[in-house]
Amino acid sequence: MNIQTLRSDLIYQKVAQAPPEEKLELFRNEMLAPFMKQWQIQQIPFKAEDPNGFDVITFNNMMHRSPDQITPRISAEIEMISSESFWLECEQSVKKSLHRFVEHDIHLPVSDYLFTIQLGNPDSRALTINEGYSGFGGIPGFIWATLLPNEYTIPRMKAALAHECNHNVRYQFIQWDHTVNLGELMVSEGLAESYATFLYGEEWLGPWVAKTDAETLNRRIKPVLREQLHVTGLDQCAPYLYGDEIAKLQNLKPVNMPYSAGYACGYYLIQYYLRVTGRTIYEATITPAAQILDEVKGFWDEETIIRG
Q1: Which end of the chain, N or C, is more open, meaning fewer C-beta atoms within 10 Å of its C-beta?
Q2: Could you tell me which residue ranges the DUF2268 domain spans (predicted)?
Q3: Tens of pLDDT along 29-52?
């Protein structure tokens, strides 16, 4: 297994010192070009023919620092992700998260992995609602984490990366396409967050689960999501998965769901599944959602108890 680290801090330092007219292409070529295969899979143009067209830079700027924002003025932010210990901990998390599957006799079809950490855009509500950190790992071989660097988010990178690595493993075995339904998305997020807490402890539970109390989960979320598991298409699933506020930010129709409803429900559903079936998180990660959902029918009628 070949795991490569893209040291974004070195790229940010270089872009920060570059003349304004050179920042955009320097950032595109150094930060985004190594992920070329991902952009191709996602069908995001690397460089739009129209200067105002949608491409990887436009996509990047939705949640991350844009090239023009990377100047000496954010040197304190860059410094916070520049220590050797920070990158070592991140690299160890990715290695641990992936190697554990191999140690449990799960052969990973993908052997090459690339990961990085990006600075988030403090003006992104989609990021701040997540307490300043997020990630993406749905394309096998490519793993990202995003943060507004501070004392809260930096220690959480190891758990965030474990979460994304779990997605990375799952989608080496589970086919992803436009027909994906809410059941799969909810199961996937539940598995990923369960894996992060399995490796690092429940104290690192992400806000997308921790902010939901038992009353909200049992009375407001579960009765609705139980009836919507068949809904297909990201635009239809997203409001149930992320909640109304993020749905509105994405110009989607709200469905009267609180913040990260599907994440919280998915987490407790997977905790229930692991408990009643006795299966390991490793086995569960590569199990089809339909099979998992078929074995957790009791979850919907049981009162979920949230500790802490």
Answers
A1: C
A2: 86-293
A3: 999 999 999 999 999 999 998 888
What tokens does 270 get? 């997977």
Q: Is residue 195 within 8 Å of residue 97, measured between CB atoms?
A: yes
Q: Quick one: how far is CA 180 from the chain centroid?
A: 17
Q: How far is CA 215 from CA 64, 211, 254, 304, 305, in A?
A: 34, 12, 21, 9, 9
d(CA 244, CA 146): 22
Mean pLDDT of the chain: 97
Say which residues have a Cβ less than 8 Å from residue 213's Cβ, sequence separation at least 6: 306
Distance (Å, rounded) from C-alpha 294 to C-alpha 146?
34
Q: How far apart are CA 271 and CA 227, in angstroms?
A: 20
pLDDT tens readout for residues 196-219: 999 999 999 999 999 999 999 999
